[in-house]
Design a protein that fits this description.
Blueprint lengths: L2 H14 L3 H7 L6 H13 L3 H26 L2 H12 L2 H7 L5 H21 L2 H15 L5 H16 L1 H10 L3 H24 L1 H10 L3 H7 L7 H5 L12 H17 L2 H19 L12 H25 L3 H36 L5 H10 L6 E5 L7 H11 L8 E4 L13 H10 L2 E7 L13 H11 L2 E7 L6 E6 L1
Parallel strand pairs: 1-2, 1-3
Antiparallel strand pairs: 3-5, 4-5
């Protein structure tokens, strides 16, 4: 479990119980669609981490069918099958598919909007335009950035391929009926923005987009801005490759081929890739996950490069009669296929390694059960030194899953910011005072693999020692195995 997941764990739980008011006030920073589907899965399977993650698995699987349809419509069935294969073994996609995060759902709805938009560009069917707009609206309710990305692609697409239609629509917008609707829509958006600003939510959203955490600011500046995502899509860490290098190189080769050929289909794929790349490059807060909606383009580009190269070799062989040239063509084809299969195997190995190393078992559930057994309504549970893998929101989810009437003020954390993303300032005197003020019953501390906190020499062990030295914290239980134990202290 990671921090980004628990938002959807809790959001789905609240919506499944009809606690919409609490969801709006405590859990509505993200758009609602993923939480709604999580709630539906909870109602069928029961509230659990497995049920919430099953949502992501479902949409990841569905996205394969949509990518197949896109590649088949733009190119052919062979390219479509290869595109699905290349996309399905991308380590970043495999990793995201096992977590309760919005990226797999976003990929699906974004691809749907692109599929129907291309079909409308080519066939001019009103049904495709309506489905494109529907997918776009759902996409906005999955991730707000869709509100920027899809309209840019649509406007540029109409400018390049349906310019007369675009001009006619712009002229009609200046006539009274549509003009009144546009003015009303602008006014409604202005009111919504003002309401968000008054509530403070807008400031949170702008902070998350423009700055993020201290750790994220450092991460976002580690490569030159123009090439940040070119590197980050394949080199997230020493052993972490969202797209494995060999497949990535084939994909980039496919994009280069599209630039060279400049077919209608190629231009559409390039437009998709460039808009996503440029928009997210302009946002200061950067992460490879933000551009996963461009991964299908790279998968299709890689498939296009491979099929184009094979077709070229076959045509060359058919035109030649020499023994050496024919065998040379066969060897070239075998080597090309071997290179592609090596890329697929390497990608699978990358994905397996990433998932295996990320499979850290933190006994949150056991520690929460222990703490909840002797907790009355006036007492609280505090997480000391919250992290991406262990924080108050995770404790709150498990407590709420067991007790629908759980008081949200019964869980809190110190320091307020995650110690693996911000430099920690752990003051034992202040912490003791806050524990007394909030009637803390139990303090939970995660071992964090013995690693140092962000930009600090402090570790869980130093905090453990500090708590012992105060004489007010007593170790009551330990859960899990070293180096991922959770220590439960009582406060007196």
């Amino acid at each position: 479990m990671v921090w980004d997941e628990v938002t959807h764990f809790t959001g789905g739980l609240l919506l499944s119980r009809g606690q919409i008011g609490i969801w709006v006030t405590t859990n509505s920073l993200y758009p609602p669609v993923y939480d709604i589907f999580t709630a539906l899965y909870y109602l069928v399977v029961g509230p659990s981490v497995f049920a919430a993650r099953l949502v992501s698995v479902t949409f990841s699987a569905l996205s394969l069918f949509v990518i197949y349809e896109i590649a088949k419509d733009l190119y052919n069935k062979k390219t479509a099958l290869l595109s699905v294969l290349f996309f399905s073994v991308m380590p970043g996609i495999v990793w995201l598919s096992r977590l309760a995060m919005i990226e797999t759902m976003l990929i699906l709805v974004f691809c749907l909007s692109m599929l129907f938009f291309f079909r409308w560009l080519r066939g001019n069917k009103e049904k495709d335009r309506a489905l494109c707009i529907a997918a776009f609206v759902i996409g906005v309710a999955v991730k707000y950035q869709t509100l920027v990305l899809v309209p840019i692609i649509m406007l540029l697409g109409m400018y390049f391929w349906k310019r007369d239609y675009l001009k006619a629509q712009l002229k009609s917008c200046l006539k009274p009926p549509r003009l009144a609707i546009i003015v009303a829509a602008i006014a409604a958006v202005a009111v919504a923005i003002y309401a968000l600003w008054e509530s403070g939510v807008l400031n949170v959203l702008l902070f998350a987009i423009s700055e993020g955490t201290a750790q994220k600011a450092i991460y976002s500046a580690r490569y030159p801005i123009p090439i940040f995502y070119l590197v980050d899509m394949t080199w997230f860490g020493n052993l972490t490759h969202p797209i494995s290098l060999l497949l990535y190189l084939i994909g980039l080769g496919g994009l280069a081929l599209m630039v060279y050929r400049r077919k209608h289909e190629d231009k559409f794929m390039l437009l998709w890739f460039l808009v996503v790349y440029i928009v997210f490059t302009l946002i200061p807060n950067r992460d490879w996950r933000y551009v996963t909606i461009a991964f299908p383009v790279l998968a299709i580009a890689a498939a296009t490069a491979l099929t184009a190269a094979l077709e070229k070799i076959i045509r060359f062989e058919q035109k030649t009669n020499g023994f050496a040239k024919k065998w040379g063509s066969k060897i070239a084809a075998v080597l090309l296929i071997a290179f592609a299969l090596t890329g697929v195997f390497y990608s699978y190995t990358d994905a397996y390694t990433w998932v295996s190393e990320d499979r850290i078992v933190v006994p949150i559930d056991q520690a929460t059960v222990f703490a909840s057994q002797n907790l009355n309504s006036k007492q609280s549970v505090v997480v000391a030194c919250p992290l991406n893998l262990f924080n108050e929101y995770m404790i709150r989810f498990y407590l709420s899953a067991k007790n629908p009437n759980q008081n949200y003020n019964q869980t809190w954390q110190y320091p307020k910011e995650a110690v693996d993303a911000y430099t920690p300032d752990f003051n034992a005197t202040e912490f003791s005072s806050l524990c007394k003020q909030n009637t803390a019953k139990y303090i939970l501390l995660y071992e964090y693999g013995g690693l140092q906190y962000f930009n600090s020499t402090q570790t869980a062990q130093t905090v453990y020692n500090t708590l012992n030295e105060t004489g007010r914290f007593t170790l009551q239980a330990t859960f899990g195995t070293q180096p991922n134990r959770v220590f439960v202290f009582s406060f007196t």
